[in-house]
Amino acid sequence: MLKGKLKLPDRLGNLVVDFEDRDDKIGGSSSVLASSEELEIILPNGLGFSRHKDDGDGLCCTEEKKTNEAAIFRASARPYKDRAGSVSAMAFIAADEKRSDFEYQSELKKNTEEELSSSKQNVDGDSDGLLRRHEISSEDHPLSLGKASVWNQYFQHMDIIEQIDRDLKRTHPEMEFFSGDTSFSRKNREAMKNILLLFAKLNPAIRYVQGMHEVLAPIYYVFCTDIDEKNVANAEADSFSCFVKLLSDSVDHFCQQLDNSSGGILSTLSRMSELLKANDEELWRHLELTSRVKAQYYAFRWITLFLTQEFNLQSVLRIWDSLLSNPFGIQEMLLRVCCAMLLCMRSKLLSGDFAANLKLLQNYPDVNIEQLLHVANDLSPDVSSYCPPL
């Protein structure tokens, strides 16, 4: 009856035929409809739809009715297990949903595997990809004190940088070039810090020793104030090269373990004392034997820092012209200038005691630089310890 009234799918049609056969066997007449009656469409919640009649033959021809009828049969169909080959509509829908879920999960798993594979390729082929986890040894621990520890070296370099920064702020405080607050002054200090830090890294046995910034200051000042713009542009690199060359002959003076060696600071101070004795034995006796003012009390700073803390920058530049151009070599000429500084203060030193002489030599007064260099050039060299420059 329903199958003739409505056009149903084959499987749902079989369900309707089953229901009709079942009603005939029971003998009930409530399920029989007259040929002039239409089946009222019932929603799953028990509410009915209003019928839409066509003006011509009264048949429902709208798409909405077809959709509603299909929805009714999907909701109202029940499994019927007595007839072989019958299919449950709900079971069919559940199986379809299960199949869709399975396909979705399979597709999701496939996409995830492709993403992981792509990420692995990026890590292997591109340095900008994900970082790999590496095993950290005890030497790479931030608290490790081992010499090979990267962290230990980092903290040591940070200590050196802090010390360099403190010293650079005290470099020639009277000059705006070094100690000012302008961007130009900060740029100069930054360049000098780079030079000193690089020297410390390249010479781990010596590293940075307080006072090296005073030796670097005249070199960097000369290059940075050159009239040639090309020299100014390369001032940092040229200063580093000259700084290394200047310290190459006296680098042992900064290493405490080499103080007693032939190239150590004590050996150099002994040579200066012998030079003074060869040119003015009376003054030598008074300083060494009478007042007992040893050369290491005052000349240690003179020699290691190339007299940079004893005179102003312009006087230092004039003295360095003589040091760098003298045929006796830098160290030999430096000892001559130091000895000349004692001879220029001869009368005051002979009349002074230990305290007076030590104060005078540690705070050397202003003198005529040209006269000082003239005295240094006229000194008789210490032939026994003189070595011609290579």
Distance between the termini: 125 Å
Run of helices and strands: HHHHHHHHHHHHHHHHHH
**Average pLDDT taken over every residue:** 76
The CATH class designation of the largest domain is Mainly Alpha
Largest sheet: none
Explain this structure.
- With 390 residues, this protein is an all-alpha fold.
- It folds into 4 domains: 2-87, no CATH class; 90-122; 152-248, Helicase, Ruva Protein, domain 3 (Orthogonal Bundle); 254-385, Ypt/Rab-GAP domain of gyp1p, domain 3 (Cyclin A, domain 1), CATH 1.10.472.
- Helices cover 60% and strands 0% of the residues.
- It contains 18 helices and no strands.
- It has helices spanning 2-5, 10-26, 63-76, 89-125, 150-168, 176-179, 183-202, 212-224, 229-233, 235-248, 265-279, 281-290, 295-304, 313-325, 330-344, 346-350, 354-362, 369-378.
- It is elongated.
- The N and C termini lie far apart (125 Å).
Outline of the structure:
The chain is an all-alpha fold and 390 residues long. It contains 18 helices and no strands. The protein has four domains: 2-87, no CATH class; 90-122; 152-248, Helicase, Ruva Protein, domain 3 (Orthogonal Bundle), CATH 1.10.8; 254-385, Cyclin A, domain 1, CATH 1.10.472.80.
Keywords, separated by commas or semicolons:
390 residues; mainly alpha; Helicase, Ruva Protein, domain 3; 4 domains; disordered N terminus
Would you spell out the secondary-structure blueprint of this structure?
Blueprint: H1 2-5, H2 10-26, H3 63-76, H4 89-125, H5 150-168, H6 176-179, H7 183-202, H8 212-224, H9 229-233, H10 235-248, H11 265-279, H12 281-290, H13 295-304, H14 313-325, H15 330-344, H16 346-350, H17 354-362, H18 369-378
